[in-house]
Design goal:
CATH class: Alpha Beta
CATH topology: Rossmann fold
Strand content: 15-25%
Number of strands: 6
Radius of gyration: 16 Å
Bound molecules: flavin mononucleotide
Structural class: alpha/beta
Distance between the termini: 10 Å
Largest sheet: 6 strands, parallel
Shape: globular
Number of domains: 1
CATH superfamily: Flavodoxin domain
Helix content: 25-40%
């Protein structure tokens, strides 16, 4: 049965409202590991060896984060730069992630309609996530449809509850493929 690693990158995890609730909703699921990078590495000093060992021990890698300036928070970028190393994720012998899957799970302040051509942010989520999609391609990982909770600040509590339940189902389904 597939094992899921959730690499959670938040700048200030203790101040998170939305990601913290999403994390709490999946933390008791079997075969799911929560890797809270912001808490583990408050100084951004990522332990590449430890992170690569975690990657090897899982089949599906979820990158969960609040969308910051149209990309991942610095802690998750630093994780990419440190963990996805030459000879491991790419280059000669760098096939250790081949056949695994990558999924983005993110929350955004901007609503879905702002992420359209001609909209407030001008580009779609698929376009803005291209660097991560390309990273999945280069490392031989399957790109799974992202989970995006958009416009979190203007959601009703009921709307967010429904998305929390949806996230739990998505993650649970990854560990129980039919
Ligand atoms: C530094 C910073 C940059 C942000 N950049 C964006 C952005 O580019 N697009 C967007 O839709 N929301 C942006 N936001 C809003 C966050 O995505 C939103 O506050 C976050 O998803 C809420 O999740 P949390 O409660 O887990 O922190 C930004 C927020 C901060 C603090």
């Amino acid at each position: 049965m597939p094992k899921v690693l959730i690499n959670y990158g938040h700048r200030r995890p203790q101040e998170s409202k939305f990601n913290a609730r999403l994390i709490a909703a999946v933390s008791d699921l079997p075969r799911v590991t929560i890797n809270d990078l912001g808490t583990r590495y408050p100084d951004l000093n990522i332990d590449g060896e430890h992170e690569r060992a975690l990657l090897l021990a899982h089949d599906i890698v979820v990158l969960q984060f609040p969308f910051y300036w149209y990309h991942t928070p610095a802690i998750l970028k630093e994780w990419q730069d440190e963990a996805l190393s030459f000879g491991f994720a790419y280059g000669p012998g760098g096939d250790k992630l081949k056949g695994k899957s990558m999924m983005v799970a993110m929350t955004t302040g901007g609503p879905v309609e702002a992420y359209q051509h001609g909209g407030y942010n001008q580009f779609t989520f698929d376009e803005l996530l291209l660097p991560l999609h390309a990273t999945a391609n280069l490392t031989g990982m399957h790109w799974l449809p992202p989970f995006i909770s958009a416009g979190v600040l203007s959601k009703t509590p009921e709307q967010f509850e429904a998305e929390i339940a949806e996230y739990r189902e998505r993650i649970s389904a990854l560990t129980n493929p039919s």
